[in-house]
Amino acid sequence: MSGLRLSRRAALTWLVPGAVALIAVAAAWDGIRHEPAPSADRADGDIRLRGGALPQPGELPGTLVFASQAECRTRVLSFATLTVGAAGPAARCGLWAPPKGDLAAVSLAAALGLQGSRIGLLKLGERPELVRELGVVRGDPSWSKDGGRLAWCTTERDTIVLAVETGARRHFEGCRPKIASDGSVLTRPALDFTTTLLRDGEVVLDQDELTRAFPADSDGPLDLVGYDISADGLLAVVAVRFESGRRPRRLLQLWRREQLEQAILLPELTLPAGTGRLGDRVEFDPSGREVAVAYRGAGKQMVLVDVERSEVVIEPTTQHGFAWSPDGDWLALSTGVEIRILGPERKEPAYVLPVGAAALAWR
User: Fold this and answer.
1) pLDDT tens digits, one per residue of 245-297
2) Is the pTM of this model over 0.85?
């Protein structure tokens, strides 16, 4: 099996008051094994996985929820039995599942004439079933950790937070919602460019604060791209500055109680127009030790940053979905033809599941 080229190399380039900046060297997967996926797209009940470097049943915790490459059908892989359940209804390859609960959100179809898609609620189980449609959603929806609330941006460019059990809805200013562990909702104004981060509609970070992380001689327009917040209140934001005569400078900024703790310089990766930007997706692992910075969607690049060591531990790599185990020790990465599971050191994969997945969630 060809290995992953994973590196902890990062070059210290300049110091920000109270922060350290690192630059990650762009790299791709060293190679992908093109093994055929098992018949995981059949809808005839459980299918036992064979081939690949598989864990023993019960060796890994929880379940993997994934959208299959064929027709993007949602399936559940049990690590307790190492079997794949029956396929859910055909959909698009957007899949969002909370750490707890028995529901997931899936993309059903593109919304004609709008930058969004029709989203539905799926009940997970032996055979996932569609519960109901929610309407048109712009960007990615966001679940609360307990699976009790779901937030999304509407066609009116504001955010709805749905209490799943009661059906009650609350509205918040802005889009790109993230539900924090304390129940608050992070958003940003629904503009092409903004320097404002909101929490329950109130300003948390503004241009003056986001600018503080950049070098004193840095100048040019600034944009807040993506963000997430850990269970212990560490706020991670990706901000990019467009400077004359050089490539954009993109920082992962880490804030706690309005204090900048560190800033990490990220590579500026380019994709064809219309595919988004690095930092559209920012996600903490369950333990708060790592932050993933990625493009939205499958087949896009991501990097992984170790917050405690201020190191890039996975250099830019193409993925079709990634997810951590509930304790954050394991990381699953889909290449599109297989799922590679990395251990705590994030080096060579400990296990390889011969499953073609277009999106992942680990519960």
Assistant:
1) 888 899 999 999 889 999 999 987 766 555 678 899 999 999 999 999 999 88
2) no
Question: For residue 252, what are the β-bridge partners?
Answer: 238, 264
Could you tell me if residue 50 is inside a domain? no
Residue 191 contacts by C-beta under 8 Å, 6 or more apart in sequence? Answer: none
How far from 28 is each of 313, 329, 351, CA to CA, in Å? 13, 23, 20
What residues are paired with 350 via a beta bridge? none
In a domain? residue 182: yes
For 45, half-sphere exposure in the C-beta direction (CA atoms, 13 angstrom radius) is 0
The verdict on 106 and 176 lying in the same domain is yes
The token duo for 32 is 């992908």
**Domain span at 162:** 63-190
DSSP character for 24?
Answer: P
- Report phi then psi at 211, rounded to 5: -70, -30
With a cut of 80, say whether residue 118 has pLDDT above it.
Answer: yes
The answer as to whether 81 is a domain residue is: yes
